[in-house]
From TrEMBL:
Belongs to the acetyltransferase Eis family. HAMAP family: Eis. The keyword Acyltransferase applies. It comes from Streptomyces radicis. SUPFAM superfamilies: Acyl-CoA N-acyltransferases (Nat), SCP-like. The keyword Oxidoreductase does not apply. It comes from the Bacteria. This is GNAT family N-acetyltransferase. Homohexamer; trimer of dimers.
């Protein structure tokens, strides 16, 4: 088999994307969705594999900015739209594309590569670790109440058209990005992502609506949701499907959640994408009736260990030598001294003895402050070479706000 790996041109983008759709089960995205992804993808760094004139592999790249602990937004290469045709699978094409992509990103100087995975077992071998998780909740709103904090009743709620309300929602979203690691800054065009609402993907639900929360005329929160009505012999049993819920204050969050749980004719509220430290967990009267589920979400890979670890701040002062193993990007292999704290950090090569030893994917999992180094050590993924180093580093790496990616890409 002779195949050619190269970047995709604008003229080839449609065929490239159609091949990708087939690999995802022939899924046809709406014209709006296809247009948006075409506009957002970074063509100079998006790859295809051709067998003759047929596209048999794809790997797209987005230029992203991701929030890290401490509030900085760091450039990152977002890997997306990966497929290999079923006729060409398991012959190393993904490995070839990934090799080329990671080399390109390292050359461009981005400290991190990011992706969301169709299956969690694919990308660890390439140095990616699960950096954020998402919680989903299916709340029995006939039985569960919101124990709203003081100030909730001072929030004014109104229903708006999501498109008309988008500029105000985006302005609030931009203010929230530095407050939570894992969120992506909205680079031009990305503001259209939360407004995509193709009828073919509504699964019986209505078009999206937007609920605005204001305090003294200032927007302090919003939720975008749809209603899925159902009328049974025993009575109405509709569902409120929440697509996003963002709030700048506890009162705004509680007011929005309470409103979503008190919709007439609805008996369930489905929230598919919550941070693992969502206030909902502490606001509901009965967490057992929320049917919580945990999943992996954003995978991160340090491309340059020194730059990736120095880009964030740390919860406590730390000075640790980390021995990194990275057989995919060997430039990262070896010992790094990481010194810093809440004000920032430096990370440089050192000849000193290691305090901790770990594979690069562990740093991917821990770099946004989500996965605990102690927990990873419990799985045998971190080796403590100096007594006490693990506990100290584990505390320093933790983020007080759980990292979270609110949407896929
Ligand atoms: C970021 C994103 O876009 S996620 C979307 C990923 N795409 C999909 O899920 C679409 C359907 N699947 C596919 O298109 C293909 O099966 C791919 C892209 C996942 C894999 O492509 P292939 O060319 O077959 O992979 P390749 O032969 O290079 O395999 C590389 C390694 O990954 C492993 N691997 C490949 N696919 C999988 C999988 N689904 N689960 C676990 N391991 C996998 C291989 O066993 C191989 O392991 P090894 O080299 O360590 O022994």
């Amino acid at each position: 088999m002779t195949t050619e790996l190269r970047t995709v041109s604008k003229d080839e983008l449609d065929a490239w994307y159609t091949a990708l759709e087939w690999a995802f089960g022939g899924l046809k995205e709406s014209a709006d969705e296809r247009r948006l992804w075409h506009e957002l993808v970074d063509l100079d760094r998006s790859l295809g594999v051709w067998d003759g004139d047929r596209v048999v592999g794809s790997l797209g790249t987005f230029a992203l900015g991701v929030s890290v602990p401490g509030g900085a937004v760091v450039p990152a290469a977002g890997i997306t739209m990966v497929h290999v045709a079923s006729t060409h699978r398991r012959r190393g094409l993904l490995r070839r594309m990934m090799r080329r992509a990671l080399d390109d990103y390292r050359e461009a100087g981005e400290p991190l590569a990011l992706l969301t995975a169709s299956e969690p077992d694919i990308y660890g071998r390439f140095g990616f670790g699960a950096a954020t998780r998402r919680l989903s909740a299916t709340v029995d709103s006939t039985r569960v109440r919101v124990n709203a904090p003081a100030g909730t009743d001072d929030i004014a709620l109104s229903v708006a058209d999501p498109v008309a309300a988008a500029p105000r929602c985006e302005e609030l979203y931009a203010r929230l990005v530095p407050r939570r690691p894992g969120m992506l800054e909205r680079r031009p065009g990305w503001e259209r992502l939360p407004l995509l609402d193709p009828p073919g993907e509504r699964e019986g639900a209505s078009a999206r609506r937007c609920l605005l929360a204001e305090r003294d005329g200032e927007l302090v929160g919003y939720a975008r949701f749809a209603l899925r009505p159902a009328f049974r012999a025993a009575g109405p049993e509709g569902a409120v499907v929440v697509h996003d819920l963002e709030a700048a204050t506890p009162a705004a969050y509680a007011a929005l959640l309470r409103q979503l749980m008190e919709m007439d004719l609805m008996s369930t509220v489905v929230l598919r994408d919550l941070p693992v430290d969502a206030p909902l967990l502490h606001l509901v009267s009965d967490v057992r009736r929320c049917d919580l589920r945990l999943q992996d979400r954003l995978y991160a890979r340090p491309l340059d260990v020194g730059a990736a670890l120095a880009a964030r701040s740390y919860a406590t002062e730390l000075d640790v030598v980390i021995d990194v193993a990275d057989d995919v990007c060997p430039g990262n292999t070896g010992r790094w001294r990481l010194s810093g704290g809440p004000g920032g950090a430096v990370c440089a090569r050192t000849g000193d003895a290691a305090d901790l030893a770990l594979p690069v994917r562990v740093l991917g999992a821990a770099c946004l402050g989500g996965a605990s180094l102690t927990a990873l050590a419990g799985a045998g993924l971190v080796v403590e070479e100096r007594a006490g180093a693990l506990a100290a580093a584990s505390v320093a790496f933790t983020s007080p706000v759980a990292p979270w990616l609110p949407h896929t890409f």
